[in-house]
Structures are given as structure tokens and as C-alpha cells.
Amino acid sequence: MANNTLIIGIGNYGRSDDALGWKVADYFAEFHQEFDVEYRYQLQIEDAELIARYDTVIFTDASREQHKKGFEYSLCKPESFTLYTSHKLPPEHVYWLAKELYAANTECWVMAISGYQWELNQGLSTKARINLDNAIRFFDKITL
């Protein structure tokens, strides 16, 4: 591990605004090489071991919720869930697994960016692009 912070972009370029998490990951990969970057379609159990290796993890993802600023950045709290699948786990549950299985002392955050279009299509909607730009400006303020 070269860096102590990991950005996990969650999403899919082929589903319009669902690409928001990956777009943030792209930004970090290009302009903040002091962070490690990973891409996921969805979080899975195996990601608990990955995040346990880092001091800080930031999950970035599109959100169907319409946040006041177009995004919400919040502390991720570990939570155990009763789940019927081991695929598509929420960040809170993966974080809980990291603590339970690997005694992780990781600090986790979630960046949820409001999206509007989810159909099969490449490219962000205009509103989602604005929200992405606002989220990136926020990240630049807190990482500089």
C-alpha cells in the first residue's frame, strides 16, 4: 500500500448518471495521485479486506436522493444488516465487516451525488454534471 487513503468509485459508465461515482474516481486518479483509487460496480464482501488496509476510505456513488447542495458528504458508520445477498452491499455494512473480520481502524466517508437519469446511456445529465462539479470543488477544498 503506497497511500493511506482509498477512493472507491461505485457506478457504471453505461447507465447515465450512475457514472457519478466513477467520475469522482477518475478525477482523483488524474489530479490527486496521493490517493489510491478503485472502481466497483457494487460493493461486495471482499471489499472489507481491502478497506481494512487503509487509514481513510471515501466511497463515492450516485444517489437517487436529491441533496440540497447536489451532494452529501457524511461520515460512514459501521452497521450490521440482515441481507439476503452478498452482492450490492451498502458501504456501512462493508465497513462493519472490515471492523468485525479484520479489526480495521479505518475512517470511512460517503460522498453521495444526486443523479437524475439511470437508463442505458453514456454521459451525464446536465444537472448531474453540475452536482459532480460541486462535489469535486468540495473535495479540492478539504484535500488541499
TrEMBL record:
Gene3D superfamilies recorded: HybD-like (3.40.50.1450)
SUPFAM superfamilies the record matches: HybD-like
GO biological process, one term: protein processing
Keywords: Hydrolase, Protease
GO function term, MF aspect, one: enzyme activator activity
InterPro entries: Pept_HybD-like_dom_sf, Peptidase_A31
PANTHER family: HYDROGENASE 1 MATURATION PROTEASE (PTHR30302), SLR1876 PROTEIN (PTHR30302:SF5)
Protein known as: Hydrogenase maturation protease
Organism: Fulvivirga sedimenti
